[in-house]
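Exercise 7.
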Amino acid sequence: MRSGLDGQWFSGASDPLGWVALLGRWDHLQTLTQLILKREDYQALIMPKIYELWPESYHDDVTVRNARNFNFANWIRYVNVTDVEEIHPQKLEPFDVEGDLRGTIEWFQAMAEVNILRINQQKSRNKLEHLLEDIDWQSYWYNVNMGVVLTAKSSDQLREWCYYQLSQILARYKLERYGQKLAYKRLTQNQKAQFIIKKISELEAKVGDAISFRSIQLTNGSRINLKENNNWLIGLEELFPYDWTQLAVEKAVQPNILLDIRTIVRSEDFYYYAERLLDSYRWYRQVFQPNNQKTFIPSDLRIDDVQISPLITYDQPVDVDISNILSAKHFYLVGQFVWPFTLQHRQSRLQHKDFSYNLLISSNKTQSTIFRVFLTTSERGNIQREPFYQLDSFLTVIYPGLNRITRESKEFKGLAGDHISYTELYHFVKLAEREEFDFPLNISTPNCGFPRRLILPRGGSGNPLKLRILIVATVYDFRARQENELNCDFSKGVSRWDELPLGYPFERFLEDDALAAEIFGDHVYWKDVDILHENH
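Solution. The predicted structure, written as tokens, is:
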């Protein structure tokens, strides 16, 4: 619990897209956490989420002010005249969390003497708030970038992974805009941040010169021919940094969510700058990256059909622990630290029902095959400006004849579910300290896992949202690797299925869905789908 410095503005500087922030006072705690968890013998440790450690950055001003002014003693006297209500433990949402602890005998024992208080959410203000204000959406991007920053050794693989993650979050944002009938193909900025525009413009000019002259001058003064050998990779490293030491900007003189890594994806302008940067990145790769990708198109294989279960989204209530906003005076009794109550912020968040899809594959031979599944708009023809968000990817063996493959949404890799709250974690630890409970090690969620419930955009309430699914099959080259980026540890590289670029085939520009070899033929399948939003 904190007091005294609550709510001070985080004044660090970051690069235009937030690939790190200058670490402020409170971020030292999270930095230390990230560094400790890179030790293999500490992997089992479970830490609160950043939005529980520093809730001020993730909640509206009214909620933060009410929580900061909350007085437990006065609330007991005047319980019926405040915005805070006490709830039964079984009313905590969601009840289904990792480890299935909520509702168990041990859980009731741990929470027996804890008053659970709730304060309700303010009303939504705009069509995109359910995504941009989502605390898991924001904390995911924070954790990814903190993990990257704290990786001592840079690498081409990590750079590629960073730009792939940026393309994913941009595609997901554009799908949400498309679903809300907002402009999405060409994003615009709302408030001009001159220091960011300058950085982006300088980078675009350098990329343009590199493409025009097929060469680049390095920081050491030498000039290299980008068409020789693998010099294009050297140019990629020179032009496209992914950490703050190479793209730092001046310190802002007033609060700006674009300069705070915890809130940067809340700003719609972030996606405008991300789009400009990714355009330059893809254009550079389009020109210089060797195109041997047709060798990965499988032969003697055909995707005959795809069937998908109903896609349904809904608004789910959730309680978020904001106890760390409260004054420390509530948690000391006769000089001893106690945790007698918790304050939960009731919010409404986007969720979807579990779904599955079935593939029907014909083959004339046994072959190991990778399938990538993308979600995009219903637009046809020119797809250069359409978002393609990768829902799933998997490796399997295809046998001669007819093959049926079923995939469940819960199986999709790289995703994370819900976890127990900061308060619950504390009381479970106290229970274990008294040797009344064997502390479970299956209740943590990977900090760099994307929120599973956000993979689908909000569906249509009356008329369903019409989208398309794209399935792409490629030949497996037996070079898959599994690393630990889900836990924000990039020290040994990143996971990948093969040597194809991450984001294939959309790491470069493809113009037409009926002409590009990568997405047209027997090895691909386009499927129209609807997403319906239910009001519960």
